[in-house]
Amino acid sequence: MRALITGISGFVGSHLAEYLLEHTDWQVAGTVYGPEDNIEHLRDRLELYPAELSELETVTSIIERAKPDYIFHLAAQPLVSLSRRDPWATLANNIRLQLNILEAVARLGSTARILVVGSSEEYGLVQPDELPIKETNPLRPTSPYAVSKVAQDMLGLQYHLSHKLFTVRVRPFNHIGPRQRLGFVAPDFARQIAEAEAGLKEPVIKVGNLEPRRDFSDVRDVVRGYHAALTEGEPGEVYNLGSEQARSIGELLEGLLSMASVPLKVEQDPARRRRADVPVMVSDCSRLRARTGWRVTIPFEKSLRDVLDYWRERVGK
After folding, report:
1. Which CATH number fits domain 2-176+216-244+286-292: 3.40.50.720, 1.10.357.10, 1.10.150.130, 3.90.1170.50?
2. 32: number of CA atoms within 13 Å, CB side?
3. pLDDT digit string (tens) for 153-209?
4. pLDDT in tens, 112-148
5. What DSSP designation does 262 have?
6. CA pair distance 59, 222, nearest whole angstrom
7. Where are the beta strands (DSSP E) in the chain?
8. For residue 62, which of 73, 54, 51 has the smallest C-alpha distance?
9. 185-213+246-278+298-316 in CATH: which number?
């Protein structure tokens, strides 16, 4: 079997590549665009296609050459904050790339299974009586990023219905782990702590709103869920992936601070406060669990420790 991971050098893509190489006998290929540090240790085991995926002809050529049985489409603009600063760039990028993958598979007559990666951001303004969130919950997106993920999600459904493609859609909730880029709460806090420990900055951690409660899981559990969804999931179906437990941003911060080697002060920074915050987001993953048996296994504390150790190593270089 052959797998193609778009965005293989990214945060999630690199962990998925590691998982597939360790737990399957598949040949693993991937598209890369930008830094490749995350997969440097895997390079001799991967088939790589350096490419920007906005042109259908490019995507068609890659799929024709790679001949994948499974396609994990992870390449995307992932930052909510950036989508608010430049809405069209996020919409154009995320929707076009997804469309190109689906259209290329349809034109080639490929039987590849395709994982369409949405987001819990699609649910948006969830009401308290709608918790925990099921896949049937209304979608009320609150950012251009969320809208782009709704579009990807619906394109996956449309190409299943109209072209009979084997698409499986997933809506992962917040995931953390080593290699996550800045702009997300866990690496933003962890880098500040690592820099303070190294004496590179004042022992002060700047934070935004610590009250929202989110469903955090480890990226290594999430990629295991992606594999389970695509190999065992029902075509055309959509599945939540999360820990099914809500933790506040403050709890995440306290967990990291408890691991710090120096005393640190916490200061509110108005510039870090996110608009349209939903108080609580927590998943119901019973649909995926019933189909595949998947559930998270990595403790939250281990995820935090690994994130902090990753930034300690980077700061120390």
Report:
1. 3.40.50.720
2. 18
3. 999 999 999 999 999 999 999 999 999 999 999 999 999 999 999 999 999 999 999
4. 999 999 999 999 999 999 999 999 999 999 999 999 9
5. S
6. 25
7. 2-6, 27-32, 46-50, 70-73, 113-117, 166-172, 175-176, 204-207, 213-214, 217-218, 238-241, 247-248, 265-268
8. 51
9. 3.90.25.10
